[in-house]
Every structure is written in C-alpha cells, then in structure tokens.
Design the sequence.
C-alpha cells in the first residue's frame, strides 16, 4: 500500500473544557476522497522515458521544446546575447550532419573537435553522435605536439577547431596526412585545399536538406555501435626517454665507525667493564646535487637502482653502550 492509497477516516473532536473559556462545541471533520485525488493529480510524476540512443533524446527535445531557448551566445563581449531556440539547434545539427555525410563525404569517419565550449562545439558533437561520424573530443589545453600525436593515433579524417586554436592547427597541419578537412568554427571561408569554414559547410548542408535530402534523419543508431573516442589523461601523454635528470652519482662514504674500550676490573665488585660506541653514516663526499646518492626510491628492486625521487636521505645515528660484568 502506498501513501496515496491511505484513507483518513472521519472523526470528531470531543468537547474540551479550559480554564476561563466556555465549552468548545464539537467540530466535525469530513475528508472528501475526490478532492484528495484531484489534488494528487496536480503533483503527478513526470512520465517515464525509455530512450536507447542520444538521437532519440535529441529528436524528442527538439519536438517538445521547439520554441524554447536552447542557448545564449555572443561572438563579441560588446554585443548582446543572441537567443538560439531548440528548433534552430535542431536545424543546425541536421544541416551540419548532412554536410558531413553528403558534402564532405565523411560519413562514419573519425572527426576531432577541439576548442572552447561554444554553440559550434555543441552542434558538431551532436551531429556526430546522431549518425554523421565518430566524435573525437580533444582537450583544448593540450600542447601542439600532443594534439598532433592524438590526431595521428586516432586516424582522424577531419578536425573542427575554434579560432583560438587556429595557430596551433596551422603549425601541425603538414604533419597530419590522414586529415582531409580542417574546419574552422565561425568561419565563412569556402573550401581551399584542406581548409574550409564551419559556416560555409553548415549552409551547404542546409541547401541539401532544403532540396529534399532527409538521409541524416533516416540514419538509424545502433546503441552498441562505437560513436565516441575519448582519450584519458594517461593516453594524452607521449612518454619519451630523456637524460635531462640524469647526473653523476659517484660518492665516497664512511658508513660506520665502531669503538670499544675494555677497562678490565676498575674496582672491587666489578669483574669487567666495557664501554662502546657506534656512529652510522659518518660522512659522504660527492658532487651529487640532492641529499644522498646512496638511497633508492624503489628499494631492493635491482632493475631500478639509482632512482631518486625525493627520497629521504639516510640518517646519521649515534649509539653508546656500557657492558658490566659483576
């Protein structure tokens, strides 16, 4: 039984007597089940959904919230924000997806997206996930050599980038032979070799849609199909062997001094008296720049000897003892 099914019975408050107050008459309280049900209906839960792909969520949102504001954007901080509705967002995603598959002929190819969070970034990402290709989002903070490395490793066929990354892309273009198109966000440039503007590509896609092409909307998404390639932090680092932190660790060390002196029988009642002392890690002569060349970060691991990663230096200890025989 749920709380909704619980019914409160009719009841009466008995007469009450209070000091200096006359008797309170009986109060009848009647609960109307119909009114309770009507009130509960006003607080019904949202209907459950059963989406299997991101494209189903996209299409449903565009249909339900068509005239609602999807995003606010401005290219220049001096200008007012431009309102973008869900309807326009849907048209732009479909237009861009159609352009990628029909105009650029990159259907199901890997396409990298790199830049600041923006409207162009969102439309590019959704167009790929909704059937145009495989999205490869890259961290905009990566240095040029690592961006180049990831694009080559992923065998990317196109790169969609923001204006702030233009210099970086220009620097590494010649080292990216697998890339067919470099698409600059918010650019109207026509196709020039491998370079083309995002706005031009989008408009070409919209022209194709306007002429009756509905191929992008007809693409069926397999929920188990590979559509997104994400590189984790460990995968975005290209490890190379370097001798930058290798230096001469030669040293001369006096590790231990042991001294002992036997006094024999110094007085009556003491048969033998010995005094002894020990000093460990007496001194080290070395040109090593850190504290102690004798330490090893990886303990007794023979394959990684001589590695010092902020290791704690060996301590110098003093011990003194007396042995008495009575």
Sequence:
């Amino acid at each position: 039984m749920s709380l909704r099914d619980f019914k409160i019975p009719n009841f009466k408050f008995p007469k009450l007597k209070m000091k200096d107050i006359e008797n309170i008459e009986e109060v009848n309280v009647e609960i109307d089940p119909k009114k309770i049900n009507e009130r509960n209906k006003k607080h019904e839960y949202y209907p459950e959904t059963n989406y299997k792909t991101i494209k189903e969520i996209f299409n449903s949102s565009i249909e339900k919230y068509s005239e609602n504001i999807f995003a606010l954007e401005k290219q220049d901080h001096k200008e007012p924000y431009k309102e973008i509705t869900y309807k326009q967002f849907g048209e732009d995603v479909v237009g861009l997806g159609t352009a990628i598959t029909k105009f650029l002929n990159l259907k199901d190819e890997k396409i990298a997206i790199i830049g600041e969070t923006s409207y162009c970034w969102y439309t590019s990402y959704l167009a790929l996930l909704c059937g145009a290709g495989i999205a490869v989002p890259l961290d905009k903070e990566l240095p040029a050599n690592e961006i180049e490395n990831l694009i080559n490793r992923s065998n990317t066929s196109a790169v969609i980038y923001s204006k702030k990354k233009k210099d970086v892309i220009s620097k590494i273009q010649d080292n990216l032979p697998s890339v067919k198109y470099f698409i600059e966000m918010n650019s109207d440039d026509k196709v020039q070799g491998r370079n083309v503007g995002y706005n031009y590509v989008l408009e070409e896609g919209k022209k194709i849609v306007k002429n009756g092409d509905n191929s992008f909307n007809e693409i069926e998404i397999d929920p188990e199909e590979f559509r997104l390639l994400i590189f984790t932090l460990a995968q975005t680092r290209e490890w190379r062997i370097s001798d930058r932190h290798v230096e001469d660790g030669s040293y001369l060390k006096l590790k231990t001094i042991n001294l002992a002196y036997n006094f024999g029988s110094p007085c009556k009642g003491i048969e033998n008296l010995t005094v002894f002392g020990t000093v460990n890690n007496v001194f080290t002569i070395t040109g090593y720049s850190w504290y102690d060349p004798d330490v090893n970060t990886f303990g007794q691991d023979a394959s990684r000897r001589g590695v010092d990663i902020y290791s704690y230096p060996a301590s110098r200890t003093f011990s003194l003892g007396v042995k008495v025989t009575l």
In short: DSSP finds eight helices and 14 strands in the chain. The mean pLDDT is 84. The CA atoms of residues 13 and 27 lie 6 Å apart. The first strand starts at residue 11 and ends at 13.
